[in-house]
Write a structure and sequence with these properties.
By secondary structure, this protein is α/β, with parallel strands linked by helices. Helices cover about 40% and strands about 15% of the residues. It has helices at about 25-40, 45-55, 60-80, 95-105, 115-125, 160-170, 190-200, 215-225, 240-245, 250-265; strands spanning about 85-90, 105-110, 130, 145-150, 170-180, 230-235, 280-285. Helix 2 crosses helix 3 and helix 6 crosses helix 8. The longest helix has 17 residues, at about 25-40. The radius of gyration is 18 Å and the shape is globular. Bound molecules: S-adenosylmethionine.
Length: about 280
């Protein structure tokens, strides 16, 4: 629940502590992974509904707006790829991105740890390979894919480098990885809320532990995982989730449409990327 209503994608689901991974015990890391999958399984219907709303009007919520911003950046990279390339969606959720990319000519496959999410992914992508799997041990041979996408998954991983290494392994040499992560200094204040939630018991705010990063740290993680080059972008900026909470009914859409000009001008500026709400790394094997 969030503020007395059922949680929906985009709600802050902060950690019980500010959670850049620093030596969690194996047991607590495993519990964090299980918990992330369990919570996402409960949110599968909500994700599916949010993606339907995204197709109708991307300015209806901060979730749909964030995906609009992200999809524009993804398009800038994916438009340059060849038709028929093999693409893996790591943590594919409901298979929304798989379906869109399949429609554009990619030969798509997806993995996720949540069976509830995969029911949607399978229904959305008939005939595609959709497998139940952890993202730190991908069930594919080395060098199987030309492109790997990993959207809003690293933030739920106590050990994101294990996932990054696996994405390097399954990519062909020269293959492209597009992955998102969440800056610790994001202006939505998720990390600060996490800190508060670690000291006060706030069930509505502690649904799920998350793991934040910085642009520099993300770049170093990609290099350590084996990517030969990486470019990091800021996707969207500002305390928009708080605006969503206080905006009168009907006011959020017009606000986000105007806010978009701010994001266009500022979100990908090098000095501001670290305070955006979402990073996208484009990394080549
Ligand atoms: C925020 S959702 C994003 C789903 C999809 N990529 C999208 O953009 O709609 C995160 C997804 O990662 C999956 N996930 C989280 N941790 C995982 C893990 N360790 N192994 C496999 N899947 C995981 C969840 O089940 C969930 O479907």
């Amino acid at each position: 629940m969030h503020n007395g209503r059922p949680s929906v994608p985009g709600d802050p689901v902060p950690a019980p502590c500010c959670a850049i991974f620093r030596g969690l015990s194996r047991g607590s890391a495993e519990r964090a992974v299980e918990r992330a999958i369990e919570v996402h399984s409960r949110q599968a219907e909500g994700f599916a509904e949010s993606y339907t709303r995204l197709e109708q009007d991307p300015y209806t919520s901060c979730f749909t707006y964030s995906r609009l911003r992200l999809e524009r950046l993804l398009d800038a990279y994916l438009d340059r790829r060849q038709t028929g390339e093999a693409l893996l969606d790591v943590g594919c959720g409901t298979g929304h991105h798989m379906r869109a990319l399949r429609d554009r000519g990619f030969d798509v496959a997806g993995v996720d740890g949540s069976a509830a999410m995969l029911e949607h992914a399978t229904a959305n992508n008939p005939g595609a390979t959709v497998l139940l799997s952890g993202v730190d041990a991908l069930p594919f041979a080395d060098a199987s894919f030309d492109v790997v996408v990993c959207i809003e998954v690293l933030r739920y991983l106590p050990d994101p480098e294990a996932c990054l290494r696996e994405m390097v392994r399954v990519l062909r040499p020269g293959g492209l990885c597009l992955a998102t992560a969440t800056p610790v200094a994001n202006l939505n204040g998720y990390a600060a809320v996490n800190r508060i939630a670690s000291t006060i018991t706030m069930p509505a705010l502690t649904a799920l532990r998350q793991y934040f990063t910085t642009p520099d740290r993300l770049g170093r993680q990609c290099a350590a995982a084996g990517f030969s080059s990486r470019r990091i972008h800021g996707v969207y900026l500002g305390p928009v989730n708080w605006v969503e909470r206080i905006a009168p009914t009907g006011a959020l859409g017009p606000f986000l449409r105007r806010w978009e000009a701010v994001d266009d001008a500022l979100a990908d500026r090098p000095r501001l990327r670290g305070v955006t709400n979402m990073l996208l790394v484009a990394a080549e094997r």
